[in-house]
Amino acid sequence: MTHIGVVVVTYNSEHQIGDCLDSLPSAVDIVVVDNASRDGTREVVGKRTGVRLIANPWNRGFAAAANQGIGALDCECVLLLNPDARLLGGAGALAAECSDPKTAAAGGKLLDSALAPQRGFMVRRFPTGAALACEVLGLNRLRPGNPVNRRYRCFDLDPDRPSDVEQPAGAFLMIRRDAWSALGGFDESFRPVWFEDVDFLKRAADAGYRIRYVPCASAQHQGAHSLAGVPFATRELCWYGNLLGYASKHFPHKTRVAVCVSVILGSFIRAVWWVLRTRSLKPVSIYAKVVYQAVTHLTAGAAGLLSVSPVLADRPGAIR
Predict the structure, then answer these.
(1) pLDDT at 26
(2) Spatial separation of the C-alpha atoms in residues 208 and 196, rounded to whole Å
(3) How far is CA 99 from CA 5, 40, 178, 317, in A?
(4) Element (H, E) at 216
(5) 164: helix, coil or strand?
(6) Residue 258 belongs to what H/E stretch?
(7) Nearest in space to 193 (alpha carbons), one of 100, 84, 83, 63
């Protein structure tokens, strides 16, 4: 059994995946799972020696693709790395943290193009009802420094100090394989993307596992490289649908109701804003679908329902 493997999930990542793969040590076992890219991603991957490609005929979503990749590896620890990230070093340090059977995952320092830490993204706390309400109501945009948002996005984190954390970004995350197996892997009903990594780490924490932040491990991360080709409606329905699914799965009844009501109110606000900005009524139909999702979750009980529109099934793929 090799000690470290790497899984990269791609979707239209032709211009990013080469640098990502070139940054990885030659000694690790690398699997790329491609979610039916329409560009030259598979051709770029095929030119790299020592890289296994799993080519999905349709977009299975990030969670399912990550499960495919991890399941294809025979190693103790697996690094999930986004295709728009370049490993700068420290994979061994992440694996060393995950060698503890009580540790399910460890994340490192994500750096932007200027090599500054991506604060607010690379490590967060688990979302609370208040944090999600502030997000969907636009309060975090109006006042990013509000106490709820500061806590959620870990603005108090010392980026140079190792620590126990809750939610390192899935863009750069080492996972202990037997913990992944014990937890049943990523929940594939979070599709095609968003909240699947949050859900996995929340289940790990609830099961008593530790999650670590290791700043000596670092990667340079572009972020959201696939978003440019994703229609606005698809992106909104996907994000809201998975947010509501997370709330239904992990929050008690009263908190779930509060999040659903906040999504409904926020949708009206955003619909008006976008109508005024675009001088089109198209945003009304988009946010009407979001409201329908929220009402569905509001009336469905705490069954962890994920109400993502079928039109999303083969669209965005691995978006970060």
Answers:
(1) 86
(2) 19
(3) 14, 37, 11, 31
(4) strand 210-221
(5) strand
(6) helix 253-278
(7) 63
Give the count of beta carbons closer than 10 Å to the beta carbon of residue 142. 9
Q: Give CA–CA dist 84/41, Å, rounded.
A: 12
> Of 209, 221, 192, 23, nearest to 122 (Cα)?
221
Instruction: Give which of 7, 2, 138 is closest to 64, Cα–Cα.
Output: 7
Is pLDDT larger for residue 241 or for residue 316? 241
pLDDT at 292 over 80: yes
**Peptide bond preceding 252: is omega within 30 degrees of 0, i.e. cis?**
no
Structure-token pair, residue 49 = 């020696």
Question: Both tokens of residue 291?
Answer: 């409201």
pLDDT at 297: 93
Place of tokens 């598979």: 42
Pairing verdict, β 163-164 and 2-10 = unpaired
Tokens standing for 174? 């080492």
The predicted structure's pLDDT at residue 210: 98
The 10s digit of each residue's pLDDT in 22-55 is 999 988 999 999 999 999 999 999 999 999 999 9
Distance CA 200, CA 184 (A): 9
Contact 10, 68 (CB under 8 A): no
Query: Residue 7 in 3-state DSSP?
Result: strand
What residue type is 143 in one-letter code? R
Mutual orientation of helices 196-206 and 232-250 as an angle, nearest 10°? 10
- pTM for the predicted model, two decimal places: 0.93
Instruction: Please choose, from the candidates 75, 77, 36, 28, the residue with its C-alpha nearest in 3D space to the C-alpha of residue 54.
Output: 36
Contact 39, 52 (CB under 8 A): no
